[in-house]
Design a protein that fits this description.
By secondary structure, the chain is an all-alpha fold. It has a domain of 46 residues. Helix content is 53%, strand content 0%. The longest helix is centred in the middle third of the chain and has 47 residues. It is elongated.
């Protein structure tokens, strides 16, 4: 009895042991998965930065053409008939697997 109460159990921390082979393989797989996710994120960031750079250059080019009077703003807003504007990759439909 401690302080008038009955002690049911005493829990002491254990010293952490080494990982068994199964736990080690699982931990290694999680590390590889995280590294792959980082690689995908870095690739997407690079692609997005390249798309932003391209869009900025197109904007700057169009602004220069308008400032020089080569084209007007209405011409800039509407592409000529039959022209197809490129779509960003994220707007394209996902491939269908068979």
């Amino acid at each position: 009895m401690v302080g008038g109460q009955t002690v049911v159990a005493v829990v002491e921390p254990i010293i952490p042991g080494l990982l068994d082979i199964s736990s080690r393989l699982q931990a290694d797989a999680l590390i590889r998965e995280a590294e792959a996710a980082i690689h995908v994120a870095e690739t997407n960031l690079r692609r997005t930065n390249e798309e932003q750079t391209y869009a900025q250059s197109q904007f700057d080019r169009a602004r220069t053409l308008v400032e020089r009077g080569v084209i007007s703003l209405p011409d800039l807003r509407m592409p000529p008939r039959g022209w197809r504007l490129p779509m960003p990759r994220w707007m394209l439909p996902a491939p269908v697997s068979t």
